[in-house]
UniProtKB/TrEMBL annotation:
Annotated Glycoside hydrolase family 65 central catalytic domain residues: 207-428
Native species: Epilithonimonas bovis DSM 19482
Name this protein carries in UniProt: Trehalose and maltose hydrolase (Possible phosphorylase)
GO biological process: carbohydrate metabolic process
Pfam families named in the record: Glyco_hydro_65m (PF03632)
Length: 576
């Protein structure tokens, strides 16, 4: 291949456009933009511009590669209608079945170009070729639009994939991109601005961009830990959604937040069926939820059977949505039925001890290194909040909550060690932990409120975290808590640890751990944004709406502005 020069790549976070440009010396200057269309979420667009530096012939190839794991692959050329400029539209199409043949997938793509300047031909039913001749100084522009549709979303995914590329072809790329840009402009009404730290500003915007990119209002879908960046975690939904990614979306974009919890509402029946499978009552949500809401954890991991705090995490997310929106109608019709079933689960899951306390035995907590433990601090605390919130929700809905909910909530075991530190689980003796667990009782759960206790727990467990293989979110939580304690430099130090070791070139995308290379880790982005919003920004959600705690900024930050918060799109400012 001929060498190139002046290779440049950039990502426009504001408009969600990826640009590559380069020069083939003595031949051509080439630039192309790639856009995942916000207004057409099943479609993408590539725009190409070639400027001739000499008399040249150009040729663009459109082929389709199918990832491993798909079956019964077929490729074809589809001749469609005559286009608006009189040229015939030629669509390249590929179909395949998903690995277990649950869904049929169709991908269609089409070149959009000036038929007076360029020509198109097809080869072997699996390739479209666009070509032409340019004189020195002339410029050629063309685009490629593609759409992927499946039988999950469409009764006729073949025709729909064709319709979408024809739609773009007829409306024109200029109009399509204008609509895309307008939607992103609206998304950026929820923003974070930092004066005095360009690196932190870029980190904030990158995290927001990635979460916005991986979620869609009214989709009734949530975000997987790796989002749409790859097949790692198979697109399944974990606690990462409700505890890490959902909170910043709830503050800055309630439409996306609503879709994330709609995902759980729609899968309540599957969660109820799961309790029957394991001998409990109510609703037991899976640790690793597939599209049907069923457990999809690989069988070699025990988390699928025993990491039960996810069920409480969902109730907490529902309650916080009510706190943000005060939507009583939603609470009555959608939220309380889920929260009630979750409370019933914890009622059947907790065991009463001889002294009147309650235990939750044999679980895997947030710290997944500890398997099969009793009275895990985070699990018990999350269950406590789920029961409390279900009781409050019952009152809002004009119902009387069972007394057992409060009895269990008030008496769930949360222990301390002899040194006064909150004990991660019964029998914990200082072992290495995968990630924050007991520390989560201060934030986000708000159960531990005494500053001295919070500080004592922070100092103890910060020395126990696996710094090589633990996920990034722990350090985000440490940053939140130290900021609220008024210790700006410690907060800033942990804030940096939440992203710097995990960034990967060239765009600083986040890997899950300092030692892994599996970006993009959306969960880490959610944690970072909480450091800004809930830590340095001091924002919290209560039963009656948003409050702002007293907090501190790193000494070199002049001002932090959190823009477009809540339904009223308010701005919250912290300054030195």
């Amino acid at each position: 291949m001929q060498s190139v020069s002046n290779w440049k790549q950039s990502l426009d976070l504001k408009k969600a456009v990826h640009t590559t440009s380069f020069i083939i010396p003595g031949k051509a200057e080439i630039k192309y933009n790639i856009t995942a269309l916000r207004n057409l979420p099943y479609s993408g667009l590539i725009e190409v511009e070639i400027k001739a530096l000499d008399h040249i012939q150009i040729q663009g190839l459109n082929t389709m590669d199918v990832p491993d794991g798909y079956n019964d692959i077929k490729k074809r050329i589809v001749s469609a209608n005559v286009g608006l400029d009189g040229g015939k539209e030629i669509i390249l199409q590929t179909e395949a079945w998903s690995s277990h043949k649950a869904h049929q997938v169709f991908a269609s793509s089409e070149f959009i170009f000036d038929h007076k300047k360029l020509t198109i031909r097809s080869e072997d039913q699996n390739k479209n070729v666009i070509e032409g001749t340019l004189k020195k100084g002339e410029t050629a522009k063309f685009s490629l639009v593609g759409s992927v549709c499946t039988s999950r979303d469409f009764n006729d995914p073949k025709s729909e994939s064709e319709r979408q590329v024809i739609y773009v072809s007829y409306l024109g790329t200029k109009r399509i991109l204008k609509e895309h840009f307008a939607l992103w402009e609206d998304l950026w009404k929820g923003d974070i601005e930092i004066e005095g730290d360009d690196e932190a500003q870029l980190v904030a915007r990158s995290a927001l961009f990635n979460l916005y990119s991986n979620a869609l209002e009214n989709s009734r879908l949530s975000i997987s830990p790796m989002g749409l960046s790859g097949t790692f975690y198979s697109g399944h939904i974990f606690w990462d959604s409700e505890i890490w990614m959902y909170p910043p979306m709830l503050f800055l974009n309630q439409g996306i937040a609503k879709s994330m919890i709609d995902y759980r509402t729609d899968r309540l029946k599957a969660a109820e069926n799961r309790t029957l499978t394991y001998g409990y009552k109510g609703a037991m949500f899976p640790w690793e939820s597939d599209d049907k809401g069923e457990e999809a954890t690989p069988i070699n991991a025990l988390t699928g059977q025993f990491e039960h705090h996810i069920t409480a995490d969902i109730a907490i997310a529902f309650w916080n949505y009510f706190g943000m929106t005060q939507d009583k109608d939603w609470m009555v019709k959608e939220a309380y039925p889920v929260m009630e079933k979750i409370a019933e689960f914890w009622t059947s899951r907790a065991v009463k001890n001889p002294d009147g306390s309650y235990s939750i035995r044999y679980v895997i907590g947030a710290d997944e290194y500890a398997e099969g433990v009793d009275d895990n601090a985070y699990t018990n605390a999350a269950a406590k909040k789920a029961l409390e919130y279900a009781t409050l929700a019952a009152g809002i809905c004009g119902k009387t909550a069972p007394k057992i909910w409060k009895q269990i909530s008030d008496n769930l075991v949360i222990s301390k060690m002899s040194n006064g530190v909150t004990q991660e689980y019964q029998g914990y003796k200082g072992e290495m932990i995968k990630q924050g667990d007991a520390n989560l009782l201060a934030y986000p759960l708000g159960i531990i409120t005494d500053p001295q206790q919070i500080k004592k727990d922070l100092e103890y467990y910060s020395a126990k975290v696996d710094k090589d293989h633990g996920p990034a979110m722990t350090f985000s939580v440490f940053a939140v808590q130290y900021a609220r304690l008024g210790e700006a430099e410690k907060a800033y130090s942990y804030f940096k640890k939440a992203y710097q070791p995990n960034q990967r070139p060239p765009f600083g995308v986040l890997a899950e751990t300092p030692s892994s290379s599996n970006p993009y880790f959306m969960t880490g982005a959610g944690g970072i944004l909480q450091a800004f919003i809930n830590g340095f920004g001091g924002l919290d959600i209560t039963e009656k709406g948003i409050i702002q705690h007293k907090t501190v900024l790193p000494k070199h930050w002049k001002k932090l502005t959190i823009k477009g918060v809540g339904p009223e799109r308010k701005d919250f400012i912290v300054s030195q």
